[in-house]
Amino acid sequence: MSNMKITLHESHTDTDFIGVQKITYGELKNAWDELNNNIKNDPFDSKNPPSGGYDIRNGYHCGDRDWNDWDIDFSLEAITKEIESIPEIIRAGDLEVYYNDTDANQADSDEHGILIEDGKIAAIY
Asked: What does each C-alpha distance from 23 to 12, 26, 39, 110 come to in angstroms?
């Protein structure tokens, strides 16, 4: 049996870790579901759906190096790929939801996201 990490694009179980992080695929799926419920139940979002949809923007501190990606599709697959691609344990990071208003040509934080600390999900807000 290989010690190689299994990615989203191969067969995996909910208990497999994502890349080098201490987050399992099952934990990320649960966090994603909770995040979507937070957005769905947010009175602002339900009354004012974004004309340009949502996206995810992140920033990770991993020790000597920081990682950023400002244009991640709003999907479980996209954030899973993002986490798989980080080669170091995330000391502190945030997968933050952005509300895209194409009419005003601007994007603002939706004040929802998933916080990561020491390679684990620390909070969903």
From this structure: 13, 8, 22, 24
DSSP state of 64: S
Give tens-digit pLDDT for 1-41. 334 343 444 677 899 999 999 999 999 999 999 999 999 99
What strands lie across the sheet with 66-73, from one edge to the other? 66-73, 54-61, 92-101, 106-117, 120-124
Residue 100 β-bridge partners? 107
With a CB cutoff of 8 Å and minimum separation 6, the contacts of 13 are 25, 26
Single-letter amino acid code for the residue at 121: I
Count of structural domains within the chain: 1
This prediction's pTM: 0.86
Q: What is the extent of the structural domain holding 75? A: 25-124
Q: Is 5 part of any domain?
A: no
CA distance 13 to 30: 14
**What would the two tokens of residue 120 be?**
């684990």
The answer to whether residue 82 is domain-embedded is yes
12 belongs to a structural domain: no
